[in-house]
Specification:
With 376 residues, the chain is of the alpha/beta class. It has a domain of 191 residues: 3-Layer(bba) Sandwich (FAD/NAD(P)-binding domain), CATH 3.50.50.60.
């Protein structure tokens, strides 16, 4: 088939990879010279640990697909580094112990560790904590370089063409039933199937095709340091992540919330600490969650101060200098039971959007799922 994909983020790219691997020809449009949305403004985490029971099968399959991508495309920087959620109170330990005692804990790779075992696993963690929840199935990729690397690999197939700085304007059908996409260069692309992956851009063509999509937008703030000077062998989270990720819901979490309020800044900005070391040695730190639009065009300094304080307490020493800060926006399904909003808006025209903060984790699985659904 001839497949045209609109949107160069992780969903569009994952769908392109699934289609090319199944022998189809793909033309891929991206309105910017390079993807600039949440796909490149994230941690690059493939995050199994916090997913709900109903999401676990999909998440583990996506983890397998990321590992396969890493073997085919080493440039994405895939590494099976796992994660440690560092716990600083008995109430947080109780939440982790409850999660580690569930039936699916072995699948997730959960192990509750004493401080000495945490430091053996990740010697860079020399700060204050009372335990750590290790998740061996968590992984990471280099979000800023993964998509160009995947596209380069797809180009070698001879069945893939990427068109940057090209915005799709109209999707129509000829009298003979052929789907046509006209771009802002005046080129008309005839195709058999159109997949629209608009990311957080829910206006314009996405709205014309799908109306008001059942999605909301979420804004986050993050930052990056210079190289740490030593290896952080796992990704790191703090106890606030237990409050954010739905996989930790349960009686122990409710007790934690009742007994231990978050720090004021963390509560106001709906924060958790996630920390990933990039291949160049720098640390990516975040994040916040803002749901009420219109979003500000500038960033708030207090969350950054909070992240630095917490990270330094857990590392046991000062952070290297922060070299960049940024904000990003992603779209999220209003129905929490949906992994993604996938809708046929016309014969052979589909919209796929709204995985929320799970986009990097679930991208390859969602591409494979769409390909199976459409019998590609």
């Amino acid at each position: 088939m001839r497949i045209l994909i609109i949107g160069g983020g992780i969903l569009g790219t994952a769908h392109a990879d699934a289609a090319v691997r199944r022998g189809h020809d793909v033309v891929h449009l991206e309105r910017e010279p390079e993807a600039r949305g949440a796909t490149v403004r994230n941690f690059g985490l493939v995050w199994v640990s916090g997913r709900t029971e109903s999401e676990l099968t999909a998440t583990l399959r996506s983890r397998e697909l990321w590992a396969d991508l890493g073997a085919r495309v080493p440039g994405i920087g895939f590494r099976a580094n796992g994660s440690i959620t560092l716990l600083r109170s008995d109430a947080e330990v109780a939440v982790a112990r409850e999660a580690a005692g569930r039936a699916d804990a072995r699948e997730r790779g959960f192990t509750l560790l004493e401080p000495e075992a945490v430091r053996r696993l990740n010697p860079a963690l020399r700060g204050k904590f009372v335990a750590g929840l290790h998740c061996s199935t968590d992984a990471a990729v280099e979000s800023r370089v993964a998509l160009p690397a995947i596209r380069w690999h797809l180009t070698t197939s001879g069945r893939y063409s990427f068109r940057p700085a090209t915005e799709a304007r109209t999707v129509t059908r000829t009298a003979h039933g052929t789907v046509q996409v006209r771009d802002d260069h005046g080129t008309v692309h005839e195709t058999d199937l159109v997949l629209v992956c608009p990311g957080a851009t829910l206006s314009g063509l996405a709205r014309e095709l799908g109306g008001d999509l059942p999605l909301r937008r979420v804004r986050l703030q993050m930052m990056q340091t210079t190289p740490l000077g030593e290896t952080l062998t796992t990704s790191v989270a703090d106890g606030d992540s237990l409050r954010y990720y739905p996989g930790f819901a349960g009686a122990a979490l409710e007790e934690l919330k009742a007994r231990e309020p978050q720090a004021l800044t963390a509560e106001q900005h709906r924060m958790q600490l996630l920390c990933v070391q990039r291949l160049d040695g720098g640390l990516t730190l975040g994040d916040t969650h803002e749901y009420d639009e219109p979003f500000a065009f500038d960033v708030d300094e207090s969350p950054y101060e909070h992240l630095v304080t917490v990270t330094e307490e857990l590392l046991g020493h000062r952070l290297p200098p922060v070299v960049r800060r940024w904000a990003g926006v992603y779209s999220q399904c209003l129905d929490p039971t949906e992994l993604v909003h996938r809708a046929r808006v016309d014969d052979d025209v589909w919209i796929v959007a709204g995985p929320g903060g799970r986009g990097m984790t679930l991208g390859p699985y969602l591409g494979e799922q769409t390909a199976d659904l459409l019998n590609l």
